[in-house]
Write a structure and sequence with these properties.
Shape: globular
Strand order of the largest sheet: 10-9-8-11-17-14
Number of domains: 2
Number of strands: 17
CATH class of the largest domain: Alpha Beta
Order of helices and strands: EEEHEEEHEHHEEEHHHEHEEEHEEEH
Largest sheet: 6 strands, mixed
CATH superfamily of the largest domain: ATPase, nucleotide binding domain
Length: 361
């Protein structure tokens, strides 16, 4: 058994997914516990039970605990603040101190979107794309990554040159605070979430919210695998994709890198990704009626084989230096790509959590 074991947790609104990770980023023990709780005491007991279970399976060899948890929070000090969906955290809960006292090992807490992005930067989409570029004799390599998780809410994380962007107040990459393309007074979470896609389908199909199917079923209706209002399902995912595309376009203009999407709703990418790309590669209009590209870069759908092949192509040209026989390479097409998690969200979060802990020890 590898002694450098870190206990991790993907704390979602539905499930608490506990993993024990070794230095090869292998999951050597795992346990899932339903997340919904009626009190802070019940919730903390679930956390302790989950960590105890996977620590016991690895002969209690864990060197630290590292996991994601929703904000707002003071992640550096491990204090969880006033959570919107977990009212019993109001006033602040010193989760780091509680767990360190229970297990007597260092505890590190971070944002789920941050750890997801870090995991994908280490072992997921970022290195996979860079390897594919090299295999295709393309010298271009990417160093920056924007990660977005779509599920109960909307999460985000940014990795720049291999380093996770935390922010001065533990609030870096809080993309859920972006305003909504449909209504500037709303957050994107009103659309880019489980409740968001259900509300869209409910409104377009005319059924009540109580009778609305779950996102997986809405996706199956949209692709014709399940009976229902297919037009409404397609329309709902189209709107979802447009809001997501506009959000990503705003964010990536400051980052300039690859984009990876995870979370439960990412499984519907076949329906929403075309609209994401359409929004990102759209146009701005000037007052005189002239238009110009929405982004300085061009976005490619990495889940579309033809787009992926185009992305990998080296389109550099050589231009001659005036009054000289010398030439210099020039990239006339600035490319970024957007793809779905290559690790799975929970594994990416676990790898990110492991790496974050090791950087702190």
């Amino acid at each position: 058994m590898n002694s450098k074991i870190v206990l991790t947790l993907d704390a979602g609104g539905t499930n608490l997914v506990f993993n024990a990770i070794n230095s090869s980023y292998e999951v050597v023990a795992s346990k899932t516990i339903p997340a919904p709780s009626n009190s802070i005491d019940e919730f903390i007991k679930k956390l302790i039970k989950g960590f105890q279970s996977i620590n016991g399976e690895t002969q209690n060899q864990a060197t630290s605990i590292s996991f994601c948890f929703p904000g707002p929070a003071d992640y550096e000090n491990g204090v969880i603040g006033d959570l919107e969906n977990l009212p019993f955290f109001r006033g602040g809960v010193p989760l780091k101190a509680i767990l360190e006292k229970e297990f007597n090992i260092p505890v590190y807490i971070n944002n789920d979107g941050d750890l997801f992005a870090l995991g994908e930067a280490i072992s997921g989409l970022l290195p996979i794309i860079n390897k594919a570029l090299g295999d295709n004799k393309n010298i271009k390599q990417y160093r920056n990554l924007l990660g977005i998780t779509l599920g109960t809410g909307t999460g985000g994380g940014i990795v720049i040159d291999g380093k996770l962007l935390i922010g001065d107040n533990s609030a870096g990459a809080e993309i859920n605070r972006s305003n909504n393309f449909l209504n500037g007074e709303m957050s994107i979470e009103e659309t880019l979430s489980i409740r968001g896609i259900k509300n869209l389908y409910s409104n377009l199909s005319g059924i009540s919210k109580e009778d609305c199917p779950e996102p997986t079923e809405i996706y199956k209706i949209g692709i014709g695998e399940k009976n229902g209002n297919k037009d409404a399902a397609i329309g709902a995912w189209d709107i979802f994709g447009t809001v997501l595309g506009q959000t990503i376009a705003n964010a990536i203009s400051l980052i300039d890198g690859l984009i990876v999407i995870g979370g439960g709703l990412s499984g519907a990418h076949k329906l929403f990704m075309p609209k994401v790309i359409e929004a990102m590669n759209g146009k701005f209009r000037r007052e005189d009626g002239q238009s110009y590209p929405r982004l300085e870069v061009y976005a490619y759908n990495m889940e579309n084989p033809h787009c992926y092949d185009d992305f990998l192509q080296n389109e550099d040209v050589e231009i001659r230096i005036p009054n000289s026989d010398e030439v210099i390479s020039y990239s006339p097409v600035k490319k970024i790509g957007i793809g779905i998690s290559k690790l799975g969200t929970s594994q990416a979060v676990a790898i990110g959590a492991y790496s974050f802990a090791q950087s702190k020890i």
